[in-house]
Design a protein that fits this description.
The chain is mainly beta. Helices cover 0% and strands 51% of the residues. Strand 24 (297-307) and strand 25 (312-321) form a beta hairpin. The protein is globular.
Length: 416
């Protein structure tokens, strides 16, 4: 097995609610947690309104359900609700999910002539994506053992034995683990048992961690998958050979919290360690994790760079063909920039990927007169505009794999 990883800046998905103004005495409360599992292609989001007034208030309003690609998926009206003084009322919204794992719920609500807006960020499953994705955040089990084993320098390459006396208790992930003051260190063990849903079908299966640190071993069904070292990194692990598609599965993680050896008594955690809430070093599974099904032929990873002087968008993509047949016969990689569901710019290149091989493709897209991203400042000459970008791996009219993301076009120079 092998691990494919790339360095990223981790942007934690957090619950965001627009701060109320002074007269906003009916408030939309933050979600207890920003991730929700989907059931039958829908996710249920509880809207909790708190009435701080000394008398009852009636709340009405509208909502918009927006995907990560900034597409409005659904809209609707809130049911009119009357909230007693100093009380809370909860309204459940069932919202459709499909090709995205990240959504924003924009709520505009009114009471007594006042109008407010709140924004809730939601992370969930993507059952209808080109590469269906199961969100693994939520219920796990956790155990702890003392010491830095199995992460001692002379044992990092060795596959450690799993202790037989681990005592697990329920825990919700993601969850940052604070640095320990115990010089002996700690190992955090995480276990999740699952059966794949019917919609999670593919040729290959990939386990993705948006945040795990700083050293970790991963097992799937007692098969050691990888040793990971480093934080601020997205890890992608091919677990196809270990996964039971039609049976029960167990994912086991051992993550080291060894920050006690890296601390300066005067400064606390050293500057070169990733820092989380209240200065705690990031440890454990501190961001979302996913299980994705892909085809044998897919876009493994990609990156882009803006050539501002020549009005060019440069795209690099690594294409992988794990099948036993060479991919040819009108195969192509197509890249689109999308503005409000309309294709603004497009380019493509014919490709041929050998059986069991891979191909690095580099494309240049002309983006003359493209909209630029500007900071969200009152005196900025533009807006923080984001294009949707689609990478389509096709064979004739058949779409083999698609990646859909957002980018903002802006170059920054520092001159004396």
């Amino acid at each position: 097995m092998f691990a494919i990883f790339r360095l990223t800046m981790i942007a934690s998905i957090i619950t965001a609610v627009t701060l109320p103004t002074l007269h906003a005495q009916v408030q939309l409360q933050p979600l207890e947690r920003e991730y929700q599992s989907a059931v039958d292609d829908t996710v249920t989001v509880p809207l909790s309104f708190l009435n701080l007034e000394s008398q009852s208030q009636t709340v009405t309003g509208l909502w918009r359900w927006i995907s990560y690609q900034q597409q409005v998926i659904a809209t609707g009206k809130l049911d009119a609700i009357t909230i007693d003084a100093k009380q809370t009322s909860v309204q459940q919204l069932k919202l459709p999910v499909g090709t995205s794992t990240h959504y924003k719920l924009v709520v505009d609500w009114s009471f007594a002539g006042h109008t407010q807006q709140g924004i809730l960020d939601i992370t969930t499953d993507a059952p209808k994506a080109q590469s269906p994705t199961l969100l693994l955040s939520g219920h796990w089990q956790q155990a702890q053992t003392k010491g830095f084993w199995p992460f001692a320098k002379d044992k990092r390459d060795a596959i450690p034995d799993i202790p037989m006396d681990l005592k697990f208790k329920d825990v919700d992930l993601p969850r940052n683990v604070a640095a320990t003051s115990d010089k002996a260190g700690r190992i955090h063990w995480y276990r999740k048992q699952l059966t794949l849903p019917d919609w999670l079908k593919g040729d290959r299966y990939e386990l993705k961690f948006d945040g795990i640190g700083k050293r970790a071993h991963i097992w799937v069904n007692n098969k050691h998958i990888a040793y990971l070292e480093g934080a601020w990194t997205t890890y992608r692990l091919d677990i196809t050979e270990a996964l039971h598609v039609d049976g029960k599965n167990q994912i086991l993680i051992a993550a080291a919290d060894h920050t006690a050896q890296k601390q300066d008594p005067k400064r606390g955690t050293k500057f070169n360690w990733p820092v989380g809430h209240k200065g705690n070093a990031l440890a454990g599974v501190y961001d979302h994790c996913y299980l994705t099904a892909t085809s044998d032929t897919c876009i493994d990873h990609w990156q882009w760079q803006l050539d501002h002087d020549n009005n060019q968008l440069q795209i690099k993509a690594l294409l992988v063909n794990a099948s036993k047949t060479t991919l040819t016969n009108k195969a192509a990689l197509q890249v689109q920039l999308v503005d409000d569901d309309k294709i603004a710019f497009v380019t493509q290149q014919d490709v041929q990927i050998p059986a069991g091989g891979q191909l690095l493709v580099m494309l240049n897209m002309d983006i003359t007169d493209a909209k630029r991203w500007w900071p969200a400042m009152t005196d900025a000459p533009g807006t923080p505009f984001l294009y949707g970008i689609k990478l389509n791996l096709k064979q004739g009219d058949q779409l083999l794999h698609q990646i859909h993301d957002r980018i903002g076009l802006r170059s920054i120079q520092v001159k004396e």
